[in-house]
Amino acid sequence: MNATPLSARATNAVALLKESSPETLEGFLKLSEIFESTTLDPHSRETVILTVAAHNRCGLCVDMHETKLAALGPAPAPERLDAVRRFTLQALATTGAVSDEELAAFQSHGYTRRNALEVVLGIGTYTVSTFANRLNRAD
């Protein structure tokens, strides 16, 4: 566990990325804004982000998005979040080539094909962030 306050860690990571590659920061911020506008509910979006962060081993991102997910309060349907987490991991493991059965399992929890593609957007967006943080040693 990093002893530096989370807000300071996040501020430092942004400053470092802005200094190192303002284009990468700008790209991430634009993608993040688009991902936030998707039809996925806030709990599902944060679950996708947290899953990518944990998969990519970005400690800063895990800490930040655990905090954000907790601030949303209890999930209305925890089994839905487990379904989006599993689907995110399957999409990562198969580079998007999930099976029809995996897609159907995701959709059986009330998600749509559109939501599946929004998960892909979240994976791409937060892969940029987690990779940049790790490369810059900001995690």
Automatic annotation (TrEMBL):
<dbReference type="InterPro" id="IPR004675">
    <property type="entry name" value="AhpD_core"/>
</dbReference>
<dbReference type="InterPro" id="IPR003779">
    <property type="entry name" value="CMD-like"/>
</dbReference>
<feature type="domain" description="Carboxymuconolactone decarboxylase-like">
    <location>
        <begin position="34"/>
        <end position="73"/>
    </location>
</feature>
<protein>
    <submittedName>
        <fullName>Carboxymuconolactone decarboxylase family protein</fullName>
    </submittedName>
</protein>
<dbReference type="Pfam" id="PF02627">
    <property type="entry name" value="CMD"/>
</dbReference>
<dbReference type="InterPro" id="IPR029032">
    <property type="entry name" value="AhpD-like"/>
</dbReference>
